[in-house]
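Run log, item B.
One chain of 433 residues. Sequence copied directly from the ordering sheet:
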Amino acid sequence: MQEKEGKGQMTNSFIVHGGKKLKGTVQIDGAKNSAVALIPAAILAESQVSIDGLPDISDVHTLYRIIEELGGTVQEDKHTAVIDPSHLVAMPLPNGNVKKLRASYYLMGAMLGRFKKAVIGLPGGCYLGPRPIDQHIKGFVALGAEVTNEQGAIYLRAEKLTGARIYLDVVSVGATINIMLAAVKAEGKTVIENAAKEPEIIDVATLLNNMGANIKGAGTDTIRINGVEKLHGCKHTIIPDRIEAGTFMTLAAACGDGVTIQNIIPEHLEGITAKLHEMGVPIEFGEDSVYIGQAKNLKKVDIKTYSYPGFPTDLQQPLTALMMHAEGSSVITDTIYPDRFKHIAELERMGGRFKLDGRSAVITGPVSLKGASVKASDLRAGAALVIAALTAESETEITGIEHIERGYTNIIEKLSNIGADIEKVTTADVAAQ
């Protein structure tokens, strides 16, 4: 890492020299959106849980620290963590690490399921507009918990948890997983209706079942859980990260000259694959890999984000960077997070042409992008800026990279290995002096 001299607060950024064609092989890591739920799920066991394939990202390490704060131990070895929750205590977590990531809300369901009580500070992470946890709370209350908000922390208390029939008013991955975590040791049967169907939910249910839970229907809109008294340790391998895979597929389409992406599950990528096909991107699947050929004369495409198996909201921002190079006007409508367009102002600084209209953005192309100083406002916005910078003339500086590093393991190394000119630099923030 290059370090520039100066005083004051230090700022990390990516410096990207665009215009290079990328070629080679990229290895996808374990799913971030699984990892942040699997680690809290391990709290429910009474002996060691070993999880293999975990991504080396800040959110994962923050959860390790939280487990240790609660009295557990975590042994790390590359991408494997052995979590021993046998000596955990129901310690309140109103502040500190718990506020560093949004997915800390899974500690609510896990702590409630194990101890019948929890105090969890309202979580942080990427700001994507209001993302209420009312459906999570509705589920906890249905199971018998009393839930209050006191001084910025959620307090959960229950004499006992009893199975219930819970209908989610909106399809929510977080609420589906959180209710599963709370319900696996509840007395009797719980039914979650209008459940989310994402692969990450199946991954968490697989871990819990390996621990001794009785969960049926994960991956469908109705999940049935028969409560059990105890859960034990097990070994589990996380699924590949479909969002990281989709990001690299998009990046390869934008500036690749033949890129192979390994460690994928093709069925998890059907939404992004369909749209890249529609744009004219050459795609060939192997058993657990995909080859993206050089894309020429990209066609415009319209996209609406939906819950799985629809087009994922997490990929609409990266795809925006590709759409700028397509002929004509493409439209993206985000039905999940309508505020998820903060990256557009930054892309306009590089020469992008956009029109925002409520939940939709119209992207007119093709354009020739020029390097600029831009800032990532959230994780997937950062991915969009990286893709745009790789296709732009001259140098782009991307700040706010802590968001990017929350979700993409070793992104500098992976991009450099396929020919990108990108480095991480540290500079002194003069304004902070």
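Observations after the first pass:
- The domain at 32-237 is CATH 3.65.10.10 (UDP-n-acetylglucosamine1-carboxyvinyl-transferase; Chain).
- Confidence is low (pLDDT under 50) at residues 1-7.
Flagged for discussion on Thursday.
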